[in-house]
Amino acid sequence: MLPVVRTPYGAVRGRREDGTAVFRGIPYAAPPFGPRRFRPPVPPDPWDGVRDVDAFGPTAPKPPYSEAFARCLADPSVPGDDCLNLNVWTPDPSPTARLPVLVWLHGGALTRGSSAVPVYDGRTFARDGVVFVSVNYRLGVEGYGLFPDAPANPGLRDQLAALRWVHESVTAFGGDPDRITLGGQSAGAISTGALIAAPQAQGLVRRAILQSGPPEVSDRAKVRRVVRRMANRLKVPATAEAFAAVDRELLLRTQAEVGRLSSPVLGGPAFGIVVDDDLVPRDPLEALTDGGAAPGVDLLTGWTTDEYRLWLVPGGLLERVDRLGAVALAGAMARCHCGSEVPRGYRALRPDAGTAEIVGQLVTDHLLRIPLHRLADGREAPSYVYEFAWPSNRPGMGACHALELGFVFDSGDEPDARKLAGEGAPRALSDAMHGAWVRFVSDGEPGWERWDAGHPVRMFGAGAPYTAHGPRDRELALWTTATDDAGENTTEDTTEEPSPATAPELRPVIGRLRRSGVLRRH
Is the pTM of this model over 0.85? Predict the structure, then answer.
């Protein structure tokens, strides 16, 4: 018999798959188009009877990955306007089950990705007693464009609407609304950090998982520049009203053209979450460490050893960075707002490393490890930190950004997981990582000691997992010294690139890097 569950807006009928009840494409908000375009989400229209939800719903409008990145990352596209939908996998769709819940926000730089990515299949979490929910939300200019005539952060507001839907509805699917874990990777982790810090989300989340993404906000002026560049190409005013009148496919093509110079390594035009009047009233990292936000939310967070290799290897940029040598290093120093003493210290710690590795680790520490260390240090609730160190079987990829997902989801048998990991990924590593995540979602104890002054980090690599104490402390201490010497915080990132007024000598560096292709991304 097919499972039927009643939601606040009508009954839905899912499927049975290997003993799990699966509901795909449930609308949690109305289609964000027509008069609702660039506006905050509103509830969906109720329906009569039973609605079949047996296939993934439409995905948010997005440009495709470049050919090089498409060989590594899957990104299915499902047409349709009703893109504010979610999926539920549950072992027991009964109101009495009261099972732990994991709500997952996908990554993709806030411009790509969806809940339909095969690696995010929730069946393994349901198999192990967790109600798993994955969410679609608006992307790119539709979700994160900044306009004078529309509220900021509509994509983040979509995620909040989905989280409220889960809190209100998950009991009927067998979940416990008092045991909701919100998690995500990359942009999904950044979004998770913003949401647990948001005043409107307080009390909705018991635990949080941030994989390779810290709580952060983008500079409003930088996001406005992206919109203005698009407006200039489209020859329309930089307003939501004008953008809503543009053909959707043309808007996506223009977004892709403007964003082709975006790069985590050296910056560039990109969309991001910004401080606004209500949902994000201040920097979420500050709110979570200094402002007392989400005081009872347990945290699981970490990174991969070679995050930067996904950003540089697929398009052949690793070799270009090595060839550019000092020019690339100067660009990285500008990106990270640090002086030469920091890369000099990295050279001393890694005497055999090439320029690309030094640049990659500098930027990884600046963007990810330093703020995640600060987050764990500033929390009173338990925090648990990991590092994923198993190198991909694909040449040159190492333990790159997003590689851990196939292990966390125990979905390494999926062809799309093998696109990044290659053949022969270790079964025992999937068992260890997936088991740790299930334990954290279920009872808040992943299986190693909580973060303290000794900086314990659980290492997931080629052998059995083990705990290392302070494995990144020597590198991160270099930034503390640089901050003390300069009398300012060198990790703050509020500019797109060095301004002519403060770093004129670096303008030709940025130009040369762009001409070389280093700044071109997916």
Answer: yes
